[in-house]
Amino acid sequence: MIAVGAVLVLRLGSTHSVLTLAFYGMALILSGSALLLSRAGRTRWATLVLGTGVAVAVVAEWAVASMR
Q1: In this model, does residue 8 exceed pLDDT 80?
Q2: Domain extent at residue 47
Q3: Comparing C-alpha atoms, which of 51, 53, 33 is closest to residue 42?
Q4: Burial per residue of 13-52, b for 16 or more beta-carbon CB atoms within 10 angstroms, e otherwise
Q5: DSSP label at residue 43
Q6: What pLDDT, on the 0 to 100 scale, is given for residue 35?
Q7: Is the pTM of this model over 0.70?
Q8: Taken in order 22, 9, 34, 54, is the CA torsion positive or negative?
Q9: Upper half-sphere CA count for residue 68 (Cβ side, 13 Å)
Q10: Of 13, 16, 47, 17, whose CA–CA distance to 33 is shortest?
Q11: 3-state class of 60 per DSSP?
Q12: Would you give the DSSP letter of residue 56?
């Protein structure tokens, strides 16, 4: 969650897009979900949720940047 927050601060410094905020907000929500899953003993699901969430945020950010 700290890494996603740090990247969000860096991205907001270079671009002020509501979509950027939404993508990284989604990644933070999925990070919290992964944390709860791992505390419940579902570490494989937590890894899957976290990996998928980060991948979706990165691909979506790239897609939006390539449209400009």
Answers
A1: no
A2: 2-67
A3: 33
A4: eeeeeeebeebbeebbebbeebeebbeeeeeeebeebbee
A5: H
A6: 87
A7: no
A8: positive
A9: 7
A10: 47
A11: helix
A12: H
Q: How many DSSP H helices and E strands does the chain contain?
A: 3, 0
Task: Determine the pLDDT at residue 3.
Answer: 74
Does 2 have pLDDT greater than 80? Answer: no
The set of residues, in sequence order, having a beta carbon less than 8 Å from that of 37 and lying 6+ positions away, is: 43, 45, 46, 49
Q: How many CA atoms lie within 13 A of 62 on its CB side?
A: 6
Average pLDDT in the 12-40 region? 81
Check residue 17 and report its DSSP letter. Answer: -
Is residue 54 within 8 Å of 27, Cβ to Cβ? yes
Q: How many domains does the chain have?
A: 1
Q: Is the dihedral of CA 46, 52, 55, 59 positive or negative?
A: negative
> Which pLDDT band, with edges at 50, 70 and 90, does 16 fall under?
low
